[in-house]
Model the fold of this input.
Amino acid sequence: MSSEQAFQVINIKTIKDTNRWSLHPFLSEGPPTSLLASIRRIGILQPPILLRLAPEKYQLLCGHFRLLINQMINPSATKITCLVLDEDTPIKKVLYSVLEDQLLSGRLSSIEKAYFFKYCLNYMEFNEVAESFLPIIGGKVQDHTIKKLSGLLTLEPELQVSIHDGKLSEKTAQELLSLTSNDRLLLHDIFIDLELGGGKQNRLLTLSKDLAYREGKTIKCLLSSSSYQEILLHHEMNQPQKIANLLTILQKNLFPQSSSAEEAFLKKVHKMGLPAACSINHSQSFERDDVTVTLTLSSLHDVERHIKEIKKIVE
Done:
């Protein structure tokens, strides 16, 4: 018998709802309020997808929250319309169904991709998974892409949730894999509490990791010291002030000579009393003695009026 799919009205009690095919096993909260409101307004527009296991027995592939909301809104309902795949449906078509259903809600997060590839690899080889699904998901067709994403599955559930919600960048998450669980969780808490973007996440991670290594400590031990805790627990500083101060003290402790040179440089520049339109910057890490002077004028006409003076200074 060829595999088929069709919309059918199914007895809810015959549906086996597990996390076997879920792309969100890390989510412990209830259904999104936006989905609940939508189904209250207009009903289920995207029916759950089931795989028939036997007569009157089905495995839920997609639609856990849709099924849950339907029961919340209609507690007395005994049946629900679903898209049903026959029991002899090829596994590749099952996987395509799971993927396409999720894509209807938008692009997959990195952690959703990781779980999807995990299920694929239970049935297919790396190269077949890459060739079949990466062009749809978006990404270079290579095994390395899948292997790299798969590493995210070893992270703690709270980190997986943050990746899914866009609060933890994939790049930072990959770097966190090299740390112990305690260090990861501490840094993650700071990232979330201070609402750090990807750039600041990476800078805080790099500075604290390098300094902890140099001092022979764990990151948790390093950042638990009073000098850092005073900043993190300060009641009057706002979040930007806390992260600015935290990064500054980490930078100073990691590169004391460079930090001293920076302070001396800024003091000299301050004493010059330069106007706001003029700024001076040193070379990277003071590798050279030359400095860059930037002069901001209001228009090209102003430059033309002062070009003689500018040339004289340069000469």
Q: What stands out?
A: The chain has a mean pLDDT of 89. The longest strand covers residues 5-11. The chain is about 55% helix and 10% strand.
